[in-house]
């Protein structure tokens, strides 16, 4: 799965198992299942991420799914977005230690960085919030016709059904449930794919984005 960057993947697993646990970023019970439930489960998301796009991993935590995705896809430009300082410090260390030049760490909440982050083609997320709330944070960060890929559990279909009205207001034009990781993970990873039309986030966010563009607030925060 990780090809030439397998040594970096091993290093990341070691960092999660050591500093990640000591600094409370990952539970000690996760250590024996780091590869299957975390690194591989997240890396297989790459199957559905288009070539050469910009990605924002919302609520990256200890770097999941953003870091495994970055390890298998050097063609992507990935922003790891995370509000908690303890976590962004860890993420910055991982990015530097693994030499991931195509990854940037940004501290902030999705709803607060809107207008300061360049819109992206793809938003990824795992275990951040129920779909309706997650979409409210992630979808406005997208470029027109972009997509959000959320790793979800067995409740994916139910979450889509419950979020349908909220998704419609956010300018979502298509939703589907995908299963990825054939031959790599068992069970397969479940991904909710949410595609937006020309106005990501709907009318309310179009106005907010236009205002940010007028006042020149589009800048990157580290
Ligand atoms: C349960 S953790 C999951 C972390 C990681 N994605 C994973 O799968 O291990 C949820 C993360 O979302 C972050 N978060 C919560 N609200 C957020 C928001 N509004 N914008 C961005 N990140 C947020 C939290 O700080 C936390 O790191």
What does this protein look like?
This protein is an alpha/beta fold and 222 residues long. It is built from 8 helices and 7 strands. A 7-stranded mixed β-sheet has the order 3-2-1-4-5-7-6, sandwiched between helices. α3 links the parallel β1 and β2. α2 crosses α3 and α6 crosses α7. It starts with 5 loop residues before the first helix and ends in an 8-residue tail after the last helix. The site of S-adenosylmethionine has 18 residues, from β2 and α5.
The small-molecule ligands in this entry are: S-adenosylmethionine
Tell me, what's the shape? globular
Percent strand: 15-25%
Low-confidence stretches: none
> What is the succession of H and E elements?
HHEHEHEHEHEHEEH
Brief summary:
This protein has 222 residues and is of the alpha/beta class. Helices cover 39% and strands 23% of the residues.
Please supply descriptive tags for the structure shown above.
single chain, 222 residues, alpha/beta, 7-stranded mixed β-sheet, 23% strand, binds S-adenosylmethionine
Topology, element by element:
Blueprint: H1 6-22, H2 34-43, E1 54-58, H3 66-72, E2 77-82, H4 85-98, E3 103-107, H5 110-113, E4 120-126, H6 131-138, E5 142-152, H7 156-169, E6 172-180, E7 189-196, H8 202-214
Parallel strand pairs: 1-2, 1-4, 2-3, 4-5
Antiparallel strand pairs: 5-7, 6-7
Helix pairs in contact: 2-3, 6-7
């Amino acid at each position: 799965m990780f090809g030439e960057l397998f040594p970096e993947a091993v290093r990341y697993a070691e960092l999660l198992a050591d500093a990640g646990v000591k600094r409370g970023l990952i539970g000690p019970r996760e250590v024996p299942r780091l590869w299957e439930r975390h690194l591989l489960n997240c890396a297989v998301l790459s199957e559905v991420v288009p070539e050469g796009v910009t990605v924002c991993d919302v609520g990256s935590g200890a770097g999941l799914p953003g870091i495994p995705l970055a390890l298998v896809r050097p063609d992507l430009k990935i922003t790891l977005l995370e509000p908690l300082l303890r976590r962004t410090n860890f993420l910055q260390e991982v990015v530097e230690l693994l030499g991931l030049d195509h990854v940037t760490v940004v501290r902030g909440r999705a709803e607060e960085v809107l207008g300061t982050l360049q819109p992206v083609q793809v938003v990824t997320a795992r275990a951040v919030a129920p779909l309706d709330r997650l979409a409210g944070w992630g979808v406005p960060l997208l470029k027109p016709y972009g997509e959000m890929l959320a790793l979800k559990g067995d409740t994916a279909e139910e979450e889509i059904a419950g979020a349908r009205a909220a998704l419609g207001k956010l300018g979502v034009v298509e939703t589907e449930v995908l299963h990825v990781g054939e031959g790599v993970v068992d069970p397969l990873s479940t991904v909710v794919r949410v595609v937006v039309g020309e106005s990501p986030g709907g009318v309310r966010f179009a106005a907010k984005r236009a205002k940010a563009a007028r006042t020149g607030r589009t800048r990157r925060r580290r």
